[in-house]
Design a protein that fits this description.
alpha/beta, Rossmann fold, about 15% strand, eight-stranded mixed sheet
């Protein structure tokens, strides 16, 4: 179907033109069916179940943009923060020019929460739980939504997160909001569509064939996805070799033949070590653009290891990387500069990283909170499908992709074949069926979705669990008993109340299914911050002990780290560390100045001579890490001192900042002293930025342009007050900050425009500054360039929107030297590769005008040139 025909079905003409520019001339078959057969632009709920790469994501994107262009509001739900960041960047670049206000909301993106609360958006990208949290505080926003797109609805089967996602989607369906669900491997899609009141668009064929198979002793036995035919392919024979050696030799052969390989492993250590081993075995070109992009980042262990493995065209991806490092790795693999990527399974959920071949482990590590120990277990079928689906992606230019399980013996080959390749999609199981209803009931009352136990019972009777797990298997009154018990527990915790009063007195008072319910201040904060009652109760105890005492940051950090939501399982603690690093002794020394009267976790640890349990020592280690983070210690020094990684520090800081914000809200609700509320609020902000009090005041004043490195540089230079900024020269400031940061700082300090005439406005998309030759900035991101590439972009940026003739470009780049004609296009391609590695794909921005020259497709107001011979 031709893209331009979408206007005939009700789509906005401006949106259609933009889709044609970004997606191409034609829709994929699945997308065309959604429009012509399932009335995508005419309303009604829709559930799309189709394999990865079939085009279902763009169906959701079209529905969201169409709603926003029709003066409605759209929300695009994703399961992961990284995916939210990717979609936000994509949508802002695509649709910001159409006038759409695009925001993102996740735990580490709270800057747009206010825009959501006041309805100041057209298209919001949000993580499922964060959207539920926002609706709890501002339920009226629900009535303004034209559509909610639920991407990766396979989350419903997640044992930890599925129950909350199911309640959220039930609330949307009950309220009459339009829902577009997208799923690749959800079992029982017909039951899910019935639950949502949606039509089911099911597609089993993939645009690009995918072979699912098992490799043993050089023979790859596979079954194709589309026609289910079986076959064999001879790959590299490795008689008697281990599974890792067989994987290594086959990955090497395929990568050296030009095929990208994505290797999924079961742990962060295996990802790092696997990439290191593969880099030493393969003969692939280095990835200089990615290496240079990494060189511009703050030194960390993973950054340095990545620079080493990229010498061999190999990278790794896991949560130990910082977000900036992950973006570089993803861009390098997407562009083909890194041909092998070793990753943990989290990368499988929706990220746009296609590969020709996927090698995957059939095992994973899982953690059970009851036993507080990890153990190895087989991956679920849905996980196998999602990881396999990274291969055989549409647009990758290959006839088929391979999903490869490696077997050590004939027995393993048969079992892997039966359990995964031949297996059918399992029936839908909903975690809500056996989940406690306390926290969910509290959030429903807080969001004013339900006002009594009877309404709560009626709501839960509308859930998917009621259809697939409870119906016909449990007595009708059992759900009522569960709901009433959940309500009574919320009352006993002081989170819900009736007309009879608050807390236990209410629980003992006359209570019936019809009794009106409301949240207490404590309950409202608990629901609004998205924490459980167990965590809220632990934080409440700490707040009550801390209103009139002097306490160290470490005191709160340890208390938060021992709550249900504060357990930082991503923090690595080895058996050697547990036995010999003496983290408990170190935190006792660090807290020696704090009084001992309050019965807080830190003081209990200080007064106890017994060795803490393993998870308690993990919490102690995390608290020590975060204390150093707040003391403005560099990431490299924290890594060295506490045997950790930068990614673990940043993830822990984000988690602790969330809990500190929750504690501040609870302190306010409990009428604690205002000084305690302010201290906790400031602690949350400091944790988010990794700075002390002085730098925090500067960060709050200047805003987003100043990252941690800039704040620490300004603090070291003593530039934390408006008076100090007034006195510093532009040259000195330019050595500390990029032009956008310097301009924001000058604006905060109230410096007259004449004091900094050469600084670039922060809104510039492209900044070329001759004071920093060899680098440019694109949307604030540094891109390092070789001399000829810098000269080329400099010449184009001097005349944005105009065709710069070849002869002028040759003069700017090579002077009087004589070079071959193809050198200009070679330098352009290298320039675009380096930009893609650091700041995303720019292929459409530098356009070739045949037989004339190059043209920079940016308006002059989005380009800022600071040239030694003048300002453009």
């Amino acid at each position: 179907m031709d893209m331009m025909r979408l206007a005939e079905y009700g789509a906005s003409g401006r949106a259609v033109a933009r889709w044609r520019e970004t997606q191409g001339e034609r829709l994929l078959p699945l997308q065309a069916r959604a429009v012509t057969e399932y009335d995508l632009f005419r309303g009604g709920n829709l559930l799309v179940q189709a394999p990865t790469s079939s085009g279902k994501t763009f169906i959701g994107e079209m529905a969201a943009v169409d709603a926003a262009m029709s003066r409605g509001k759209a929300v695009y739900l994703v399961p992961l923060k990284a995916l939210a960041e990717e979609k936000f960047t994509l949508f802002r670049e695509r649709y910001g020019a159409l006038g759409l206000r695009v925001i993102v909301s996740s735990r580490d993106h709270r800057e747009h929460d206010e825009a959501f609360s006041r309805g100041g958006f057209d298209l919001a990208v949000a993580v499922y739980e964060k959207f539920a949290q926002l609706l709890t505080t501002r339920p009226e926003r629900l009535n303004e939504l034209g559509v909610v797109v639920a991407d990766e609805m396979d989350l419903l089967a997640d044992p930890d997160r599925g129950a909350e996602a199911e309640v959220l989607l039930t609330a949307l369906a009950v309220s009459g909001r339009r829902v577009i669900g997208l799923s690749a491997s959800l079992g029982g899609a017909d039951r899910a569509a019935e639950w949502l009141g949606a039509r089911l668009l099911r597609e089993e064929r993939r645009p690009v064939e995918l072979r699912y198979g098992v490799l043993h002793d050089g023979v790859y036995k596979y079954r194709t996805h589309n026609d289910r035919s079986e076959g064999e392919e001879r790959l590299v024979e490795t008689p008697g070799a281990s599974t890792w050696e067989a994987l290594t030799q086959n990955v090497r052969a395929l990568a050296e033949a030009g095929e990208g390989c994505l290797v999924f492993v079961k742990s962060k250590y295996e990802a790092r070590r696997g990439a290191e081993l593969l880099a030493g075995r393969v003969r692939l070109p280095a990835a200089p653009a990615a290496q240079e992009a990494l060189s511009a980042l703050e030194p960390t262990r993973c950054r340095d290891l990545l620079r080493h493995t990229l010498n061999g065209g190999v990278a790794f991806h896991n949560t130990d990387l910082t977000p900036a490092e992950r973006r570089v790795v993803e861009a390098a693999f997407r562009s083909g500069e890194a041909r092998i990527l070793v990753s943990t399974g989290t990368l499988a959920a929706g990220m746009n990283l296609p590969a020709a071949n996927v090698f995957l482990s059939a095992d994973k590590w899982i953690y059970h909170p009851r036993f507080e120990l990890p153990w190895r277990a087989p991956i679920e079928y849905g996980e196998y499908e999602n990881m396999s689906g990274r291969a055989g992606r549409f647009g990758a230019g290959r006839a088929f992709g391979r999903s490869v399980l490696v077997a050590a013996a004939p027995f393993d080959q048969e079992s892997l074949w039966r359990c995964y390749v031949q297996a059918a999609r399992p029936a839908l199981e909903t975690p809500l069926a056996g989940a406690p209803l306390d926290d969910l009931s509290l959030r429903l009352v807080a969001a004013r979705m339900c006002r009594s136990a009877a309404e709560l019972e009626a709501f839960f009777a509308r859930t998917l669990a009621a259809r697939v797990a409870w119906a016909g298997k449990r007595r009708p009154e059992e759900l009522g008993f569960r709901v009433e018990n959940a309500v009574r527990r919320c009352m006993e915790a002081g989170a819900l109340r009736t007309a009879a009063g608050e807390g236990r007195a209410a629980a003992d008072a006359a209570f019936s299914r019809e009794t009106p319910l409301e949240t207490t201040p404590f309950g409202r904060v608990t629901a609004a911050r998205g924490i459980s009652l167990a965590t809220a109760d632990a934080l409440r105890r700490w707040v009550r002990l801390s209103g009139d005492r002097t306490w160290l940051d470490l005191d709160f950090l340890l208390a938060a780290g021992l709550t249900a939501e504060g357990r930082m399982l991503h923090v690595t603690l080895t058996a050697r560390e547990y036995e010999h690093a003496d983290y408990p002794g170190r935190i006792k020394c660090a807290a020696a100045s704090q009084e001992m009267q309050a019965d807080t976790p830190l003081n209990r640890l200080r007064s106890c001579r017994l060795t803490p349990f393993f998870d308690e020592v993990r919490a102690v280690k995390a608290a020590l890490m975060l204390d150093e983070w707040l003391r403005e210690t560099s990431l490299a020094d924290i890594e060295e001192a506490l045997e950790t990684t930068a990614g673990q520090v940043l993830a822990s800081a984000e988690q602790a900042a969330w809990l500190a914000d929750a504690a501040a809200g609870l302190a306010d609700a409990l009428a604690a002293p205002q000084a305690l509320v302010d201290r906790l609020d400031g602690l949350s902000a400091r944790l988010a930025r990794g700075v002390g009090d002085a730098a925090l005041a500067l960060a709050r004043g200047v805003g987003a342009p100043l990252d941690r490195a800039a704040l620490l540089a300004l603090g070291a230079a003593g530039l934390t007050t408006p008076e100090a900024v007034h006195a510093v020269s532009d040259e000195a400031l330019g050595r500390l900050l990029n032009p956008a940061q310097a301009a924001a700082l000058r604006k905060w300090a109230g410096t007259p425009e004449s004091a900094a005439p050469e600084t670039a406005p922060p809104e510039a998309v492209l900044v070329v500054d001759d004071r920093r030759p060899g680098e440019i900035r694109i949307r604030g991101r540094v891109v390092l360039l070789q001399d000829k590439q810098y000269r080329l972009i400099r010449a184009l940026a001097a005349a944005p929107g105009e065709c710069v003739p070849y002869d002028r470009l040759y003069g700017e780049v090579w002077g009087d030297a004589v070079v071959e004609d193809n050198q200009m296009h070679f330098q352009k391609n290298m320039l675009l590769k380096r930009i893609a590695a650091a700041a995303g794909d720019w292929r459409g921005v530098i356009r070739t005008v045949p037989r004339r020259g190059f043209l920079l497709e940016l308006p002059p107001e989005q380009v800022r040139c600071l040239l030694l011979d003048g300002v453009a």
